[in-house]
Design brief:
Shape: globular
Largest sheet: 6 strands, parallel
Number of helices: 12
Strand order of the largest sheet: 3-2-1-4-5-6
Distance between the termini: 11 Å
Radius of gyration: 19 Å
Helix content: 55-70%
Length: 253
Amino acid sequence: MRSRPVLLLDVDGVILDNERWEKESARLGGPALASLLGGDPEVWAAHQERVWQEVWRRGSSEFRSDPGLRGLNLSRWWDRVEAEWIAQVCEVVGVEAPGTFEERVDVAERATIHILENTEGIFPGAAGAIEELSGRFEIHMASGNPSFVVETVLRRLDVRDRVGRPFGSDLVGFQKGDSRYYPAILEAVGAVPSRTIVVDDGEEPLAAARAAGLRTVKVGGAASDESDLAVGSLAELPDVIAEVVESTETETS
C-alpha cells in the first residue's frame, strides 16, 4: 500500500475564482487576441467570452448526444472547440481568422495561457495550501479543462513540482461528468478509491466520485450528501483534512 493517501484537486472553483473569470477573460483576453490577430482590444473583450461560452455549450451538447463524437479522442475534441471559437469570434469581431485549423487552435491556446498567466482571479492561499498538502498527500489534478490549462495554472502558482499528473479531460479520456472519469484516474496512478480524496466545488463530480467509492471534500457553499467534508476555500483544507484522512485509514486498517 502506498504510504500517503491520494488527493485529486479540481481547478475551476477551487483554485480559479469562477465568479471573476468573465471579467478577467475580457480584461486580458481582449488585448491578447488583438495582439495575435489585430483589431480593437475592446471589441474583442466585448465578445470573446460570450462566443466561447456559446461554442463550448454547443460542442458539449453535441458530444453528449452524437455517438460518433463520443468516440472522438478528447484532445482532438478540445482542439475542435478551440478552433471553432476562434473562427466564430473572428467573424463577430470582423477580423480574418487564421487560415488553418492548427493555427486557430494555437491562437486559442496562446490567448488562454495569457489570461491564466496574468489573471488576478486566483483564490488567496491556494498555492500555500497545495504546498502544505503535498507533504501529506500524493496530489494529482482532476479537472474538466484540457491539461494545458491545468499545467498553466500550476506553473502560475509555482507548485508544479508539488503535483503529479495534471489530469484534464483530454488526459483522462473521458469528460468529467462521465462515470468512468475517476476510475480512469485511479487506474492511471495506481490508487484505490478508499484512500483517494476528491476536492471539488461541483455537486455532479462529487456525486460521481462518491459513486466510485472515493472520499469527497466540497469547496465553497454548504456541505451536501455527496461530501464527507465542506470548506469555504482550499486555503482552509490543510487544517481540517485530517478528519477525512482518519476515516479512510479506519476503513482500510
